[in-house]
Design a protein that fits this description.
It is a single chain. 56% of the residues lie in helices and 11% in strands. The chain is mainly alpha-helical. The chain has 2 domains: 53-145 and 248-398, MetI-like (MetI-like fold, Orthogonal Bundle); 157-244, no CATH class. Strands 2-1-7 form a 3-stranded antiparallel sheet, with no helix packed on it. A two-stranded antiparallel ribbon has the order 3-4. Strands 5-6 form a two-stranded parallel ribbon. Helix 6 links the parallel strand 5 (206-208) and strand 6 (225-227). The radius of gyration is 30 Å and the shape is elongated.
């Protein structure tokens, strides 16, 4: 039988190679850490002095970086992450449970199972801009199954909107009254009708044939008078549950697109958490008479929950910093008039705000971009800390 042994010289060479390789790895790690420290130092030097409470609670002002802020962007990022989590986490964890715990025995179904697993592994490496293009097709336009939303026309299908007419009286006051048909654009006022003034008080709108007939000596009546033939403009009063099809370029479309981005990460991380559960636990549950689903529900899932939460942390950490899918789906929004009032509205988010500010010609916005990066890092650390704390307490409860 052949004997394998090493000579003192080969042993010395092996140890030398180990030292060289260890030194190389240490240098590479040191270079990465040094680069990170340099970037963070540069960011804090550039934007640290611009951090203030006014910056946190103000909105974007064009050509005025001194008074601009990121409050709307913070709210938008949090709302989008909540939508993303509600969409991706249940589907991702459920898919992982199905793929790992309920593997089929049929040959055809096993081939299909293998194909699905292969696609999930491949999707985890797809660039996020590709998901942005998919989000535009699937959520913004819904594969063109519904008429496109135009600025001058109401959506084809909507819920939670009340349409009203608005016009300006001869006294300069804006009044409104119900709009019976949201598609009626040729409405003209020909007779008195019931209306509501800007203070919310109802009255009967006075109609005169010409401006010369207006009651100039009565300023109160003048604010309730219009010329015959005046065309009011229709507008929508949208509730917090306002919804329309297709989704359009809204926060809902962006949240669902980010859900697609992190879905493969959630599935793969959840599968690893399920694989880490010892097989003896499953066998013990089945041996005591539990069904397959009962064993999964009562034994496997509680043991794998800390791993699920780790996957959720990794996924949400990526979602909160994604800019490309949001730019593709919702555009580069920096500020909105009314803020985030419903899911069909647009909203600025931190990554897009940083991207737009960093490319602005005004030097002040470059400092704001650095300050916004610090806020994004703090928000990310807070989210991760909360998730880690919850996971730690859950692990203590289990063990």
């Amino acid at each position: 039988m052949e004997k394998f042994y090493t000579t003192p010289r080969s042993e010395t060479n092996r140890k030398a190679k180990n030292r060289y390789f260890s030194t190389l790895c240490l240098l590479v790690c040191g270079l990465v850490v040094l680069t990170l420290i340099t970037l963070l130092t540069s960011i804090f030097i550039t934007g640290g002095s611009w951090l203030s409470w006014e910056f946190l609670f103000a909105g974007h002002l064009e050509d005025n970086p001194e008074e601009s802020g990121i409050w709307q962007a913070i709210i938008g990022s949090i709302a989008m992450c909540v939508l993303c989590a509600l969409c991706a986490l249940p589907i991702g964890i459920g898919t992982a449970i199905f793929l790992e715990e309920f593997q089929p025995r049929n040959k055809i179904l096993r081939a299909l199972h293998w194909l699905v697993q292969l696609n999930i592994n491949n999707l985890a490496g797809v660039p996020s801009i590709v998901y942005g293009i998919l989000g535009v097709t699937a959520f913004v336009y819904m594969f063109s199954y519904f008429p496109s939303i135009t600025p001058n026309d109401p959506p084809y299908c909507e819920v939670g909107a009340e349409y009203r007419y608005q016009l300006k009286t001869l006294g300069g006051d804006f009044v409104n009254f119900p709009c019976p048909d949201k598609n009626d654009k040729e409405f003209r006022i020909t007779e008195p009708l019931e209306a509501v003034n800007s203070q919310g008080s109802p009255f009967v709108l006075n109609v005169v044939d010409t401006r010369s007939q207006a009651p100039k000596n009565d300023p109160v009546l003048l604010k309730q008078t219009v010329v015959k033939g005046k065309r009011p403009s229709a507008y929508a009063v949208k509730s917090f549950f306002y919804f329309h099809l297709p989704f359009g370029k809204t926060v809902l479309s962006s949240g669902l697109t980010l859900g697609l981005v992190i879905l493969p990460i959630v599935i793969i991380a959840s599968q690893e958490a399920l694989r880490a559960v010892p097989a003896s636990l499953r066998e013990a549950a089945l041996g005591m008479g539990a069904t397959k689903w009962e064993a999964v529900r009562e034994v496997v899932l509680p043991a794998a929950t800390p791993g699920f939460m780790t996957g959720a942390i990794l996924a949400m950490s990526r979602a909160v910093g994604e800019a490309a899918p949001v730019l593709a789906v919702m555009g580069g929004v920096l500020v909105t008039t009314n803020g985030l009032t419903n899911l069909m509205a647009k909203t600025p988010v931190l990554p897009v705000t940083i991207y737009k500010w960093a490319g602005d010609e005004n030097v002040g916005f470059e400092h704001l971009a650095a300050a916004a990066i610090i806020v994004l890092l703090v928000l990310l650390l807070v989210m991760n800390s909360i998730a880690i704390l919850i996971r730690s307490r859950y692990e203590k409860m289990l063990g």
